[in-house]
Design brief:
The protein is of the alpha+beta class. About 25% of the residues lie in helices and about 30% in strands. It has 14 helices and 33 strands. Strands 28-25-27-26-30-31-29-32 form an eight-stranded antiparallel beta sheet. Bound molecules: guanosine-5',3'-tetraphosphate.
């Protein structure tokens, strides 16, 4: 018999502001319902008044900025942002991950800043490619996953089939917290497994759950009217309660088990159970690895790292916002922080919180919070801010590009401006910029082709720079490292025109084919060729 264990609460009621924080992202395949669910979560948090605001806002923004037109045209979400809302005793920071796989780099970086993730699955489609890929990133980082099986109000697979698929394809134990009562047009609500409570679809989510005497309760005959449906459902639930794992907080926190909720984001059904689940189960901010030590969220001194830069969010202000996750201590408005990369002090005079439609000055922020720091190019992706300590947070990755192009400038007089613009786009993480050693024009590298379109549109819209792309003879590149500088020099000298530096000055080897890369890797045993680089 499955009984829901009484999980140790993640202490949302604690006076400790860190214990109340839940910083999470939603991972899903496009169309599974991420935007709809986001809207509904924000509604619960009172962050927006009307459902539909998230999309409405996006459309409004995209009319103001040309490059965002791409998002509108292709119906995908290009912009990563953060939304903060309070619900119950918790402060939630929801980090939006771009939906399109072309933007995987941004997505990966966003996932470095969360403590848990909600995996949204379309009940008819199950685990899709993109969900799986994002799940793998979460697994690498041991990020606990809460699952929301969405669109129960439409034609859906049998819940056992969905759960079985999660277990088999993701090698993740499943512990359903609720169980659907009917599917598709017969969907009537959910039953809390082991909890003897029912949430009815025909009652408002706010109305709460109603008690039942168990799955034998006559209410189920009322809800499932088709001939024999109620009895078939009872058998199913008995099987679920007897045969499936019960929720185990430790296994969830370690990333081995996912609690599963069933619902319909569109009907705003099951969303309250999900958000309550996040408050109860999802971990508060975790410690973060830095180069010299691990930093605990409870430490008194403020530390944080930048995982995302977004420029020109509002072209009227030509602003540039660095999104920083606070890792420890308290960030106070007006405080002086040290930017470890340069060793220079930086005044945090106007840190911002983001809500669904507004930003507000953050007077104070705690570990787990994500604040936007307006700046004019001082901050880069991967930067660490501290109150003086010389540490650098690890793990904000940059991936070796899969597509490389040389930039052809139509107006040669604007070379200097292009250099500046590329520097900025590189620092923002829109593209990677490689400066060839032989003095030839810059090469840009991207993981997905759509990034090239974004770069082109932004150079035109924001800098008045019309450009084209030319293919290069290079198709892959790797950062190179070795025990000694001498080894690097030897390699660099032997590969003159195939060498470039990235924006940090790190040496990059560019190869014409994967075959020639492998050849060099075998020949140069003392050189390490890496396809992921930590920003620093
Ligand atoms: P995404 O961000 O994951 O890409 O998905 P999004 O929320 O935009 O949802 C994709 C489509 O699925 C939308 O329909 C949305 O209304 C629908 N949808 C989301 N959740 C549910 C649900 O629980 N039940 C049902 N039946 N549909 C759901 P669309 O027609 O493509 O977009 P729209 O014109 O309604 O905005």
């Amino acid at each position: 018999m499955l009984m829901q264990t009484d999980p140790r609460p993640a202490d949302p009621k604690s006076a400790d502001p860190v214990a109340r924080r839940r910083t999470f992202a939603i991972i899903s395949h496009p169309d599974a319902g991420k935007t709809t669910l986001t809207e509904k979560l924000l509604l619960f948090g009172g962050a927006i008044q009307l459902a539909g605001e998230v999309k409405a806002k996006r459309n409004r923004v995209s009319t103001r900025s040309d490059w965002m037109g791409i998002e509108k045209e292709r119906g995908i979400s290009v912009v990563t942002s953060v939304m903060t809302f309070e619900y119950g005793d918790c402060v939630f920071n929801l980090l939006d991950t771009p939906g399109h796989e072309d933007f995987s780099e941004d997505t990966y970086r966003t996932l470095t800043a969360v403590d848990s993730a909600v995996m949204v699955i379309d009940a008819a489609k199950g685990i899709e490619a993109r969900t799986r890929k994002l799940f793998e990133v979460c697994r690498l980082r041991d990020i606990p996953i809460v699952t929301f099986v969405n669109k129960l109000d439409r034609e859906a697979r049998d819940p056992f089939e969905t759960l079985d698929e999660i277990e088999k394809t993701l090698a993740l134990d499943v512990a359903p917290i609720t169980w659907p009562i009917g599917l598709g047009r017969n969907f009537a609500g959910t039953y809390e497994l082991g909890g003897n409570r029912v949430r009815r679809l025909d009652a408002a989510d706010d109305a709460g759950t109603i008690p039942v005497s168990g799955f034998a309760d006559p209410l189920f005959d009322e809800l499932l009217t088709e001939n024999g449906a109620a009895d078939a459902w009872r058998e199913e639930v008995e099987l679920a309660e007897g045969g499936l794992k019960s929720f185990d907080l430790a296994a969830f926190r370690e990333g081995h088990l996912t609690p599963v909720f069933f619902g319909s984001a569109l009907r705003n059904f099951g969303v309250r159970d999900l958000i309550d689940g996040l408050a109860r189960f999802a971990p508060p901010p975790r410690g973060q690895e830095a180069d010299k030590r691990a930093v605990q969220p409870s430490e008194p001194k403020m530390t944080g790292f930048v995982f995302k830069i977004q420029a020109n969010m509002d072209p009227n202000h030509r602003d540039r916002i660095a999104f920083m996750r606070v890792c420890s201590g308290m960030l106070r408005r007006g405080m002086k922080a040290k930017l470890v990369r340069t060793g220079k002090p930086m005044s945090l005079s106007a840190p911002q919180f983001f809500f669904a439609q507004d930003r507000a000055i953050a007077d104070e922020a705690y570990a787990g919070d994500v604040v936007g720091i307006p700046n004019h190019g001082t901050l880069r992706i991967g930067d660490t801010l501290t109150e003086g300590e010389e540490i650098v947070f690890r793990g904000v990755p940059s991936f070796a590009p899969e597509i490389m192009r040389r930039i052809k400038l139509t107006d040669a007089m604007k070379a200097k401006k292009l250099k500046e613009a590329l520097q900025q786009m590189g620092e923002e993480g829109v593209v990677q910029v490689f400066i060839p050693q032989d003095g030839s024009p810059a090469i840009v590298g991207v993981v997905g082709a759509l990034q090239l379109d974004v770069l082109k549109e932004r150079l035109q819209a924001e800098y008045g720079l019309p450009i084209d792309y030319e293919t290069t003879r290079f198709s892959v590149c790797r950062w190179i490292e070795a025990e000694s500088e001498a080894e690097i020099d030897k390699f660099v000298n032997a590969h003159g025109s195939a060498m470039a530096s990235d924006l940090d000055g790190a040496p990059v080897f560019m190869a014409t084919t994967a075959f020639s890369l492998r050849y060099e890797e075998e020949r140069w045993e003392k050189i390490r060729f890496t396809d992921v680089k930590d920003y620093q």
